[in-house]
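ok trying again, last paste got cut off:
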Amino acid sequence: MYFIHESSYIDDNVEIGEGTKIWHFCHIQEGAKIGKNCIIGQNVNIGPNVIIGNNVKIQNNVSVFTEVFIEDDVFIGPSVVFTNVHNPRSFINRKDEFKSTIVMQGASIGANATIICGNIIGQYSFVGAGSVVTKNISDYTVVYGVPAREKGKVDKEGNFL
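nice, full thing came through this time. structure:
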């Protein structure tokens, strides 16, 4: 069993794991796969064919676009922005140029961070609120700023070392 608020819209061919909760005004698009025990906050859009692992928490106002892959135990803060094209133009169709972004197990991304496509957010890493991620982040690494730069390390539980 899972919970979907009546104001949310779930397309055909979507998989939702047991114990997952999808709150107000969400749209889960065709082919998306959401794992077990996830929390999808208000006004979240999950794009076509997106794969989200187990125990993932996505806070309000996040769009997870095609070619973004989220592993288990990830936290995504409110209003985080993912991109999937490096040089978008409204008059050019670049769907064949999407760049993959992978958020690895246990990573945390703070509120209002922007994740530029084509990067890997390492296991148990920590992206500070408001940061702009322009390159890969190593496992257990703390980054913040514009652009995000390495500021230290964290352990698996998120304690700064």
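cool. The chain has one domain: 3-153. The mean pLDDT is 97.
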